[in-house]
Amino acid sequence: MKRVISALAFVLFLLLGFAAPAAAGGDSDPTIDDDRMAVSAGPCGGSYRHVGHYPIGSSPVLGYMDVYWSGTAKRNCLVVNHSSATYGTKLYTEASIWPYGSAAPSCPNSVGCDGGMYSYYAGPVYTPAGVDMSNRCLNLKGVVDWTTATRTRVHCG
To answer: How far does the signal peptide extend, from start to end residue (predicted)?
Structure first.
């Protein structure tokens, strides 16, 4: 009986501990626990689902822009992840997201932008609260090691 209670308590801890969204900025070394959180809830939170994956650079690809959408929050989220070529190397990394037709956010730290010397990822960053992105397009910018990728008018409505 003790083993069953211990196992249930451990599972409850895992579920509660991994449902929270990731903190901004990719300065810390990810652990197995962080990997499990990304699988169960995603880096943006439990209501967000992955909707886009875009490379930054080529030969080698230095990183990826990963876009998420929440129908509940009516917001998008962006995380820029280092690829295997840059993973674990502290480089300038930036994630920027904003509604098409609006001004780009200012970096390094604003609602839609996170930038700095990171080893693994930048973000998550979100479109502005109160702006319903259901029928709007996105602009994205991802930077790893000063190599920039942009996408304009994507994930429209």
So the answer is: 1-24
